[in-house]
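Blinded run. Sample ID left blank on purpose so nobody reads anything into the name before looking at the predicted structure. Input follows.
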Amino acid sequence: MNRFFGRISTRYASGMRFCQFHDQSNGLRLGAQLADGSVADISAQYPDLKSLISAGAEGMSKVSAALGSPASGVALDSLKMAPVIHNPEKIICIGLNYSDHCTEQNLTPPKEPVVFNKFPSTLVGHGDAIQLPKIGCNTDLEAELAIIIGKEGRHISKESAFDHVFGYTIANDVSGRDWQKKRNGGQWLLGKTFDTFCPLGPVVATDVDPSNLKISSWIGDDKMQDSNTKFLIFDIPFIINWVSQICTLKPGDVILTGTPGGVGMHRNPPKFLADGDTCVIEIEGLGRLSNPVKMEE
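Blinded prediction complete.
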């Protein structure tokens, strides 16, 4: 395993956690999670997460100062959550990045990362519905650790990779397997980028060591995936180094790091999402991302 894998970002190792949520008028607000788990509105400092990230260390200091005086918050579960970031320039995804996910498909682990993307229109928040496309789609879940980029970079070395990380959150790389595997000439894009196919949240944490986190998923009461980020084939410094040789990483960009084995496509019989289901993704230290499933209207 890469010796740099277990480091935490040196730029944002302050132990802060953030979320985005909607107010009663459906306006977007930025929140900071307090020590008791409640959420304080910090929109007076920065209107959204990308603005905070773009402000760099000065922004974090400003938020820390605002929270230095006695702050009160509201329960996270009482909020209408938005995706932790709603306006990334890029959502970059790594496929086939857990050995057990390769094994369940009878595939040899890749020698270099398998990279694809999702459009920002896929993003929804904790509690929002995953919509099953009217056009027809065998819809599956994928539990993933997601990186939020904090500092612009191109040709980023593995040694400095964590200096470009703002934090980590939970993603569900919802996938239309028929569109991914059998249609569109075998290109993955359409199967990965239907609207609502990337729940992201509920919080982004700057203080998580990503090297050894339990990751699990459920459809209702049926546990689907049960693994650990220590089984990633390509670790986070490798991914950041690799992708940044292709394109410039910008503050707020999202990188999904891959899913472990246990997805519905490879069950016997296959288990796909159905109207009325609830998907839950849990990652140690980051909480739970939960989304109901319904047919597109």
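Unblinding after everyone has recorded impressions. The first strand starts at residue 17 and ends at 22.
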